[in-house]
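Wed. Picked up where I left off yesterday with Gfo/Idh/MocA family oxidoreductase. The coffee machine is broken again, so keeping this brief.
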Amino acid sequence: MSRRLGVGLLGVGWMGALHTRAYRRLTDHYPELDVRCELVAAADVGESGRRRAVEELGYARAEPDWRAVVDDPDVDVVSVTAPNALHREMALAVLAAGKALWVEKPVGRGLAETAAVAAALGPGAVTAVGFNYRTVPLVEHAGALVAAGALGRITGFRGWFLNDYASNPWGPLNWRFSRDGAGSGALGDLMSHVVDLATALLGPLREVVAVTDVAIARRPYAAGEGEHFATLGPGALEPPGDDVPTGEVENEDSARVLARFASGASGFLEVDRAAVGPHCSLGFEIHGSTGSLSWDFERMNELQLYLADTTGDAGYRRVLARPGHGDYGRFQPGPAISMSYDDLKVIEAARFVGAVLTGDPLAPGLAEALSAARAVDAMERSAASRAWEAVA
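Structure written out below (tokens, as returned):
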């Protein structure tokens, strides 16, 4: 008989819906888990969010107070997908209640809050953190190639996450642009993903030197909280006039970082949430003494691979995702059939739920979130000091 897991959700937005759909799809793609995820309760401050949780997502009930979800004895696992400012308090409450935690990154508004959550991790606790790009089958294949020495001695890394969601000056001044609401800006939102990929592939960063910038210094006030990709104006890139009330952006739109890894390799890491043009360009290049590879999320199911030879005709070749690359075969039966972003969340959910069932260690969890937070903290310190800073 299938084991039952009661699911609680804190925050009914885009990401909360993704978590929910991932739980529901587990039996389709991972039947061997033999688990039945029961959607017990969701919490959201907005009435529309609570209504959506029940009517659209399928939760048995919805609460205005998230603590009622955490304290429910029928809830075994909790997804935290609320805004950043709530992550620390919610995560600590979930851990204190002895329940498994799946929290989106960043876990806290900076290193101190993330460290506080990590310090509360008790024996046997299961945690997962939403670094879902790790689970891309060809990213895992790239890591296997590096680990096997296929590229030789790794000498260089370039990683980036360029996005245009904040490129329009009519984008509302929501919590993402506030120190109190989000902590850092592009560093916490985007760079944490780049750092996690870099460390998963090459090991930890040792020291960094960083430059940060704000591209759009003031934004119009939102009538409500404002969606991630929302704009309030006509869509033009001309900023609002003096007749439109605006407020100051308190954190960075972009960061460019030189880094050295503990392994001795060096790299360049770049993030920009206000880049005009790239919609969601996340990727990396790795260079070694006998080969190189590159991957970009906008072409998620392809990997460019170069392995040196002596024929004189050496060059990059395109590797297409196929069964045998990570968990690809659980979603598609043959090569070159595209997977989606939502599929990555299903992989993440499967590994989280699998760890809950077995008690086995899971990465990325709070340890990896703390590692990323330490790197981001060093970048913030470097941007202020204009000097190299060590990653703790």
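Quick read: The longest strand covers residues 154-163.
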